[in-house]
Automatic annotation (TrEMBL):
Family matches, as Pfam families: adh_short (PF00106)
SUPFAM superfamilies according to UniProt: NAD(P)-binding Rossmann-fold domains
InterPro entries: NAD(P)-bd_dom_sf, SDR_fam, SDR_member_12
Name of protein: Dehydrogenase/reductase 12-like a
PANTHER family: DEHYDROGENASE/REDUCTASE SDR FAMILY MEMBER 12 (PTHR44656), SHORT CHAIN DEHYDROGENASE_REDUCTASE (PTHR44656:SF2)
Domain of life (superkingdom): Eukaryota
Taxonomic classification: Eukaryota, Metazoa, Chordata, Craniata, Vertebrata
Length: 310
C-alpha cells in the first residue's frame, strides 16, 4: 500500500540535521503560506514568525485563520502576521487574489504551497473543474505563475511545494485531468495530483531560473487533513505519525536556510536531503514531451479563467 512507503524515523533523520542551518533571522523577508491555519502550514508559519519573518497566511476559513494568527502572534511576539481569505478551489478567485496581492505589496520572498484537498467523492467547482484538481494543481499553478513577477523582483526568491509519498506510485497522467472517467478514488486522485506538483516544480525551475523552486515530502504527519481524509489509517498509525513541527521542518529549512539554495532548483526533498522522485525500477517516469504537454494544458486552463485586471 502506497500509504506505507518507507520514511525514515524522524529521530534517525534529525540526527544529521545541522542546527545552525536554521539559526538565521528573516526579519524584513516576507513569506506566503497557503493552508496556514493548521497542521504543517501553521507549524511553518509559527517557526518563520519566531525568526522575525513577515507571514501572509492564506486560508479558506476566516475564524480558524484568525484563531491561528492569534496563537502565532502570542507565541512568537511577532505582529507581522496577516490573514488573507481565499478558497483555492475557486479558480477565478485565485487569479483575483494574486493580482490584488501584487498591487498591495512590494515584495514576496518565499511562497509555500502547502494547502491540499482530498475528496471522498467527485465534486466540481463553479467553473466546472474537479475540486481537488482545482486546489492541488491548477490553484498552485495560477498562484505561483501570477506571483512570479513579484518574487523575481524580491531578494533571494523561493517557492516550496508540499507533496506526499502517494506520488511515488503515480506516473504523470495528462489525460482525464478532471477525473471524469472511471471510478473516482479520492486518495489515488490526490496521489496523482502530488506527482503533478513534482513535475510542475521541475518545469517551473527550468522556466524561471531566477527563483529557487523545491518540492518536499514531509513524511506521514498527524494533521487534521490526514485524520479527516483517512480516518482508518490515522487511527491505526497515530502512534508513529510525525508531529506537525516535525513535518514542517524541511519546509522551514527550504524557506530560510542558506544551505538549501546551494542545491539546484527543481529538486525533491525529504528530511532536508535531495532524494529521487521515483522508487527504484519504477514505471512512473514520464517523457519530456508529456511533461511539456501537461504544462501547456495547465496554461490553457489558467488563461481560460483569467480576466484582465487593470
Amino acid at each position: 500500500m502506497w500509504l506505507l512507503e518507507p520514511i525514515p524515523a524522524v529521530g534517525e533523520a534529525s540526527k544529521r540535521f545541522v542546527e545552525k542551518d536554521l539559526d538565521v533571522s528573516v526579519a524584513g523577508r516576507s513569506f506566503m503560506i497557503t493552508g496556514a491555519n493548521s497542521g504543517i502550514g501553521k507549524a511553518a508559519a509559527m517557526a518563520i514568525a519566531k525568526k522575525g519573518g513577515t507571514v501572509h497566511m492564506v486560508c479558506r476559513n476566516k475564524d480558524k485563520a484568525e484563531e491561528a494568527r492569534a496563537d502565532i502572534v502570542k507565541e512568537s511576539g511577532n505582529k507581522e502576521v496577516y490573514v488573507h481569505i481565499l478558497d483555492l478551489s475557486e479558480t477565478r478567485k485565485v487569479w483575483e487574489f494574486a493580482e490584488a496581492f501584487k498591487k498591495k505589496y512590494k515584495a514576496l520572498n518565499v511562497l509555500i504551497n502547502n494547502a491540499g484537498s482530498i475528496m471522498s467523492q467527485r465534486d466540481v467547482n463553479a467553473e466546472g473543474l474537479e475540486k481537488s484538481f482545482a486546489v492541488n494543481v491548477l490553484g498552485i499553478y495560477i498562484l505561483t505563475k501570477s506571483l512570479v513577477p513579484l518574487l523575481e523582483k524580491s531578494p533571494d526568491p523561493r517557492v516550496i511545494s508540499v507533496t506526499s509519498g502517494g506520488m511515488f506510485v503515480q506516473k504523470l497522467r495528462i489525460g482525464n485531468l478532471q477525473s471524469e472517467r472511471g471510478r473516482y478514488d479520492g486518495t489515488m486522485v490526490y496521489a496523482q495530483h502530488k506527482r503533478q506538483q513534482v513535475v510542475m516544480t521541475e518545469q517551473f525551475a527550468k522556466t524561471h531560473t531566477n527563483i529557487h523552486f523545491s518540492v518536499m515530502h514531509p513524511g506521514w504527519v498527524d494533521t487534521p487533513a490526514v485524520a479527516n481524509a483517512m480516518p482508518d489509517f490515522h487511527r491505526s498509525m497515530k502512534e508513529s505519525l510525525r508531529s506537525p513541527d516535525q513535518g514542517a521542518d524541511t519546509v522551514v529549512w527550504l524557506a530560510i536556510s542558506e544551505v538549501a539554495i546551494t542545491n539546484p532548483s527543481g529538486r525533491f526533498y525529504q528530511d532536508r536531503r535531495v532524494v529521487s522522485t521515483h522508487l527504484p525500477l519504477a514505471w512512473t517516469h514520464s517523457s519530456p514531451l508529456e511533461e511539456q504537454k501537461f504544462m501547456s494544458l495547465l496554461e490553457e486552463l489558467a488563461k481560460k479563467f483569467h480576466r484582465t485586471y487593470s
